[in-house]
Amino acid sequence: MDLLRLVLCLTLVALVKTNEWCYTCDHHTPSHWAEINGSHCGEHHQSPIDIVTSIVTTDPKLDNFTFVNFSSQHSIRTITFNGHSVQCDMEDNEVEVSGGGLSGQYSVKQFHFHWSKDGSGSEHLVDDHRYTMEMHIVTEKKDVPGGDVLSHKDGIAVLGFFINATEENEMSEPWQMLTSYLENITGNNHTAELNHNISLSDLIGHVDLSRFYRYMGSLTTPMCDEAVVWTLFQEPIQVHKDLLQKFPEKTGLSFNYRPSQSLNGRKITASPATPLPEVHPWCYDDHHCDHTPDHWSELPNSNCGGDSQSPIDIDTQSATADEHLTSFNFINFDNNRAIKSITNTGHTVKCILEDGLVEVSGGGLEHVYSTLQFHFHWGTDAADSEGSEHTVDSHRYPMEMHIVNKRKDLTLEEAVQHSDGLAVLGFFIEAPGSSKSSSHSDTAGTEAPTSTESTGSNMEAWKKLTHYLSAIKNISSEVEVTEEIAIDDLLGNVNRESYFRYSGSLTTPLCNEAVIWTVFKETVKVDHDLMAMFPTNAGYHDVFRPRQSLHSRKVYTTAAATVPGPVLFSLLLSCLCVLFF
Ligand SMILES: *[C@@H]1O[C@H](CO)[C@@H](O)[C@H](O)[C@H]1NC(C)=O
Ligand SMILES: *[C@@H]1O[C@H](CO)[C@@H](O)[C@H](O)[C@H]1NC(C)=O
Ligand SMILES: *[C@@H]1O[C@H](CO)[C@@H](O)[C@H](O)[C@H]1NC(C)=O
Ligand SMILES: *[C@@H]1O[C@H](CO)[C@@H](O)[C@H](O)[C@H]1NC(C)=O
Ligand SMILES: *[C@@H]1O[C@H](CO)[C@@H](O)[C@H](O)[C@H]1NC(C)=O
Ligand SMILES: *[C@@H]1O[C@H](CO)[C@@H](O)[C@H](O)[C@H]1NC(C)=O
Ligand SMILES: [Zn+2]
Ligand SMILES: [Zn+2]
Asked: Mind listing the domains of the chain with CATH numbers?
């Protein structure tokens, strides 16, 4: 084969490969990128991520960057729409960056953009907030033998800038010029020469370049090579919203960000100038910190002193039957790949679900909710331990599981500001054959057969799940869940038609009163030795908030359910009384 044919051949392979993935087509959307031949997209140090500022630590080694020729107005050569993004290619070997904790000199190759038609299209999140857009300045490490930057974990340095849409009157001239080219590059692989004098510094504007986050990750597009040292500048670039809208509008690409990836134990650090939230630790017991539950209301921005707090004691006799409390629709509760990772937060063990996969609606809820995570509340490893948050007629169960759902039409930030922004499904957990629940459960009398049935069906799933606990003994550690576990398997055959309903709050700071609570009457059955693994592995116990006052709230109960024995009895009694007197 002659050289020309070989080159042609390789080019064709490259073309086919790059066309194999997309953000919005039918096949090879981000969740399938890992299946592409030779792809690294399923590995464990992927990008983008959510930068949770409460776990970011300051690193004094992250000094100021040295930028070379960033203000050169002749360094941007072309602008292209390549089907995945709008990319500007730089003149070769002219613009450079070093310092900022980087291990060498990096040469700027190109910069490109991530956006969404709905106005939140950044790839990285900061405390769950998605900015309007994100700009990536892609640089390659100089002096890498053979130029093989992809085989070094810091072969590529990406400087990420968040872009915030403003509505200020005057438009920045450099951004106006840059976006004017979007008219001219529609259609795939359309390239325009950049004839205006725009520099990178003109586009970056007033961002304080000494404030930034740092972590090790990957390219955010296939093949997702884990070769990137990431810098995310804390301050966003401010650009008029009319200019930013042109990206989805002119390209016809409605969004081009990859969903956020698991941290999997990686560290996020910040330069010394980056403001980080003041750490206000809270805890459940007075050995560990100043802010025990009685003092949670003193935390900054706390809602913990409000009138509609959770958990509560559910008095079954005063619960009002409500016919609107119908069956739930559970989407993907049977999907055994829905659990992405499991983490020890220091307050609980939390299972994080794949983005946008699991949903809940119905059950008297007025919206569709996306299921984000579930977590647990427990007592000690003692056989008679009590650690549920809610109590029923003053009875506390051994454990409680909370499945946390967010209104699908709101961001998490917005959801915690709405009284129905979140819906939490609470399930009590107790050992099979426990008799304690029978007096409150409306399955009284049929208790024994139900519990034997459920034992066999769901214990495998609980064994698989609790098996991970030994891998997350360290606080803040997180591991990927690779075993096949569906939420349905964990819940077993609990009756999901029979539940209590009330309006309340998150049961941990900041206790936002944004939760529609569903507390199921029947208990999930889990062997005692599996339950005991939560306190023993996590290293802390009694992680439940004390009962809060009901104030003027009402507790509702499903109407279809059979009336609990004692209620029926007292009703009968009052009837008799009426008859007699
Ligand atoms: C900066 O740009 C000028 C041309 O504008 C070039 O001569 C010079 O070599 C560049 N500096 C570096 C360090 O690349
Ligand atoms: C984004 O822009 C809006 C509108 O100008 C402004 O209110 C907001 O503070 C900005 N956000 C950030 C993080 O800069
Ligand atoms: C876009 O293309 C039109 C027509 O080809 C041309 O007149 C205009 O100058 C171009 N705009 C830019 C910013 O290059
Ligand atoms: C760009 O800069 C060069 C010299 O630096 C100047 O001659 C030219 O007029 C400028 N072009 C524009 C469009 O401003
Ligand atoms: C780093 O940059 C910031 C702002 O650009 C400046 O205030 C600070 O003095 C610089 N620090 C050092 C050590 O040069
Ligand atoms: C937990 O932390 C210790 C010390 O910080 C470390 O040696 C150990 O490897 C960690 N264990 C896990 C499972 O991450
Ligand atoms: Zn990018
Ligand atoms: Zn909870």
From this structure: 3-270 (3.10.200.10), 293-568 (3.10.200.10)
